């Protein structure tokens, strides 16, 4: 893998007049944005061919900052817009960015159905375990026992495992990374984009403001350390017991199934057959 | 000529109208009494090489329509009351982001699940106010199968021309009745197609409202890279919290419709010239009203009929004019009294009464005639 150079020219992809961004100092979302831009650059996609849709929340503000065809949609519904434009213009590269609440709570239905269809698009879930923009409420990925403004005594709900959910629902490429593992993240985004079918990449990102400070990780540094320490490369995880994996998460490619039926291709094949 | 006349159902006429108008994307979700629109397009629009997709819910169906429309599609979805409630979220998004789309609501009773197989006109106010925030909407109420066909073409045209969601409000009677439709040659019709902007990408502003004209929505993927957001935005499309931008953008959403009301409004008048009593009726009820009008005239009562075809924006100027010489107005509706509020507002010095039946039973001509007699 070529080494990531820090001299990468982000300016050619940023809409500089929309900056500064709204993210808090120390937020992990900027690391994901930069990794995404490097991955797109590596693949030499034309800016005119890239569509990025998003829902509502911190992560979903990303499209406004990048010079592609960008659609900041309604809460949880970014995948529905993505499906519409991808089906209508299959030549476009369609990427959805979404937070954990956006993708898995209010958008959970769209998430599983996009996965079931195995439509050739990429979903990047920025998982910060919380509703950061609204001030730190409970999220469907919030770890059991952790604290949020709406679970002040600790969450008594089990969280979703984004990757297991994606896999079970039919996604054919599933991976996880973190905002600490920026080099791996760039590579995984590029792999997700080139996978034919529905690819889901969960990125554990840090929100020290809304999540960390309620959960004994007041600073971005502590949160980044958490990501580094809790991450278990998937290839190592196979040799670990469930007890050893408790409180940790697998990173890297979790699941890949090649040559599955893909929705756009299947649809257009059928349209060709029935055409009058 | 005979081969151009077809017997069809109202929902089928909507599908036919959409196809001849160049609709090239449909997303829906099953719901009575509108499902035939989806079913017919699934069988037929696909044969023209276009996408028809059944989404996982009503919200997703309109989301997919809007995604496709941003790609340049002339896109349509169809639903009924409960689906309209769910779609309200994206009707607001389409208004705010000025994305053309057509939403067919074959009205049934409510609230909630209501009466799926019975006719109603109870979503008239929902059509105007269903989504949160101020906005203008165009809504059309056809009263026959033939009109369903032609008004669907007009709806798609208006959606593209004014970059707005357009609602077609039929009801279970119109949707399921069978009548003849005269299918025209396509080249005799006015069809407004999606166009590329007439400026190069470097000069393109997706919300160029200061020009006072509706800027074409550039299909995405054609070199015009821009941003779309449901947040308040200025001419460039990027979010703005500047108060003057918020105010101007909000004014524009209303003005672009109401400043063009002469182009958008459409109504039919029958025997209003010498009328002493005016019936204001739309959709299937206007058919009974027409029959009641004949009964009244035969009995020597000078009744007239005003039938809005564009129900929103409401043609209040014309009602105002008519109300100067006609002092009594009857508004029969299959709801508890919705459009009557608009009529009362426009004709505030008149005696305006409603005839409201919501049992699912159609409002028959004799009931309207009896009410006319009672008022005279």
From TrEMBL, chain B:
Segments forming domain Pyruvate:ferredoxin oxidoreductase core: 275-367
Protein's UniProt name: 2-oxoacid:acceptor oxidoreductase subunit alpha
PANTHER family referenced in this protein's UniProt entry, alphabetically: SUBUNIT OF PYRUVATE:FLAVODOXIN OXIDOREDUCTASE (PTHR43088:SF1), SUBUNIT OF PYRUVATE:FLAVODOXIN OXIDOREDUCTASE-RELATED (PTHR43088)
Organism ancestry: Bacteria, Deltaproteobacteria, Candidatus Acidulodesulfobacterales, Candidatus Acididesulfobacter
InterPro entries attached to this UniProt entry: 2-oxoacid_oxidoreductase (IPR052368), PFOR_II (IPR033412), Pyrv_Fd/Flavodoxin_OxRdtase_N (IPR002880), THDP-binding (IPR029061), Transketo_C/PFOR_II (IPR009014)
Name of one Pfam family that matches: PFOR_II
GO molecular function: oxidoreductase activity
Domain Pyruvate flavodoxin/ferredoxin oxidoreductase pyrimidine binding: 16-246
Key words, A-Z: Oxidoreductase
Origin: domain of life: Bacteria
NCBIfam families xrefs: PRK08659.1
């Amino acid at each position: 893998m070529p080494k990531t150079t820090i001299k990468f020219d982000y300016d050619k992809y940023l809409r500089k007049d929309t900056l500064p961004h709204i993210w808090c100092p120390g937020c992990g979302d900027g690391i994901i944005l930069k990794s995404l831009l490097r991955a797109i650059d590596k693949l030499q996609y034309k800016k005119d061919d890239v569509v990025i849709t998003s829902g509502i929340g911190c992560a979903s503000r990303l499209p406004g900052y990048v010079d592609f065809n960008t659609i900041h949609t309604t809460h949880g519904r970014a995948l529905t817009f993505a499906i519409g434009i991808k089906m209508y213009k299959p030549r476009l590269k369609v990427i959805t960015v979404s937070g954990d609440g956006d993708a898995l709570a209010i958008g959970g239905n769209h998430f599983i159905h996009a996965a079931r269809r195995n439509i050739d698009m990429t979903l990047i879930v920025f998982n910060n375990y919380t509703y950061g923009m609204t001030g730190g409420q409970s999220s469907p990925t919030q770890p059991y026992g952790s604290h949020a403004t709406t679970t002040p005594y600790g969450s008594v709900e089990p969280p979703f495992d984004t990757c297991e959910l994606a896999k079970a629902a039919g996604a054919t490429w599933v991976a996880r990374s973190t905002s600490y593992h920026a080099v791996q993240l760039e590579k995984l985004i590029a792999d997700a984009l080139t996978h034919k079918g529905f690819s889901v990449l969960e990125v554990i990102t840090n929100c020290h403001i809304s999540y960390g400070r309620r959960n004994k990780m007041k600073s971005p540094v502590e949160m980044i350390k958490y990501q580094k320490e809790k991450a278990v490369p998937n290839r190592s995880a196979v040799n670990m017991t469930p007890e050893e994996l408790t409180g940790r998460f697998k990173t890297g490619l979790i699941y890949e199934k090649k040559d599955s039926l893909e929705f756009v291709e299947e649809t257009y094949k059928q349209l060709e057959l029935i055409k009058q | 000529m005979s081969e151009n006349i077809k017997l069809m159902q109202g929902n089928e006429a909507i599908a036919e109208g959409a196809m001849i108008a160049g609709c090239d994307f449909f997303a829906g979700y099953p719901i009575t009494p509108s499902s035939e629109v989806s079913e017919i397009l699934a069988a037929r629009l696909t044969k023209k090489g276009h996408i028809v997709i059944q989404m996982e819910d009503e919200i997703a169906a309109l989301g997919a329509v809007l995604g496709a429309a941003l790609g340049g599609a002339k896109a349509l979805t169809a639903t009924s009351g409960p689906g309209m409630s769910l779609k309200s979220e994206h009707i607001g998004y389409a208004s705010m982001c000025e994305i053309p789309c057509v939403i067919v609501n074959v009205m049934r009773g409510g609230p909630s699940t209501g009466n799926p197989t019975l006719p109603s006109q109870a979503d008239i106010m929902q059509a105007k106010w269903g989504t949160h925030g101020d906005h203008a909407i165009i809504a059309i109420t056809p009263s026959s199968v033939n009109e369903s066909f032609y008004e669907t073409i007009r709806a798609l045209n208006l959606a593209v021309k004014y970059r707005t969601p357009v609602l077609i409000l039929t009801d279970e009677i119109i949707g399921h009745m069978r009548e003849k439709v005269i299918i025209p040659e396509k080249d005799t019709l006015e069809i407004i197609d999606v166009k590329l902007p007439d400026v190069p990408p470097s000069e393109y502003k997706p919300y160029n409202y200061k020009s006072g004209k509706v800027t074409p929505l550039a299909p995405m993927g054609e070199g015009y890279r821009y941003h779309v957001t449901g947040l308040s935005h200025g001419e460039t499309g990027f979010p703005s919290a500047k108060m003057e931008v918020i105010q101007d953008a909000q004014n524009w959403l209303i003005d672009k419709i109401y400043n063009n009301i002469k182009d958008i409004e459409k109504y039919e008048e029958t025997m209003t010239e010498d009328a002493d009593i005016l019936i204001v009726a739309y959709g299937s009820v206007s058919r009974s009203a027409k029959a009641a009008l004949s009964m009244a005239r035969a009995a020597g009562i000078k009744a007239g009929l005003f039938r809005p075809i564009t129900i929103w924006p409401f043609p209040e100027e014309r009602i105002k004019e008519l109300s100067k010489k006609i002092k009594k107005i009857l508004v029969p509706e299959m709801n508890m009294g919705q459009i009557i509020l608009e009529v009362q507002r426009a004709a505030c010095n008149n005696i305006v009464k409603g005839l409201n039946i919501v049992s699912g039973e159609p409002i028959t001509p004799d009931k309207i005639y009896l009410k006319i007699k009672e008022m005279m």
